[in-house]
Amino acid sequence: MTEEPRWLTDREQRAWQAYRRMFLLLNAQLSRDLGQDSGLSEPDYDVLSSLGASPRHRRRISDLADHMLWSRSRLSHHLARMEKRGLVMREECDTDGRGAIVALTEDGLLTLDKAAPLHVESVRRHFIDLLDPEQIDAFAGIGERVVNRLTPTGDDA
Predict the structure, then answer these.
(1) What is the reported pTM?
(2) Alpha-carbon 75 to chain mean position
(3) Residue 82: CA atoms inside 13 Å, Cβ hemisphere, count?
(4) Which Pfam families does this entry report, sorted A to Z (predicted)?
(5) Inter-residue contact 87 to 108 (CB < 8 Å)
C-alpha cells in the first residue's frame, strides 16, 4: 500500500513559490550588480570573501571547498582562473605535503576591499532594507533551521 503524497496546502504552496522566485530573482540581481560594480562573478566573490574572513587570509584548499560546499575539483579549476588574474596564490602546506593552501594576494585583498562595500549595499538595497527587524529575525531563524537540518553537523532532526 502506497501512502498518498502530502501535497502542499495553498498557504504552503504560496510560501514555497515565493521563496523559489525570491531566491532566483535576488541571486540574479546580486550577481548582476556584483559584475557591474566590481567585475567579479559570484563565485569569485565567494572565494575572496571566504579567504578574507580567514586567519592571515589563507586556508587549506580542502577546508575552503568544504566551507563553500564545492567539490575540490570545481574549486581547483576556479582557483586556477583566479590565480591567472593575480587574485589568489597557492602555497605548499608546511604540516602536510599532500595538502595545499590558497591565499589572497595583495591584489586579491584590494579587489575584495573595493567590492565588499558595493556588494553589501546591493544586499541592503534588494533585501535587508525591504524587511523590518522582526522579518529579518524570522528569516534568519528560518534559514538557520533549514541549514541545520541539511548539514551533517546539524542537530535539528
Answers:
(1) 0.86
(2) 13
(3) 30
(4) MarR_2
(5) yes
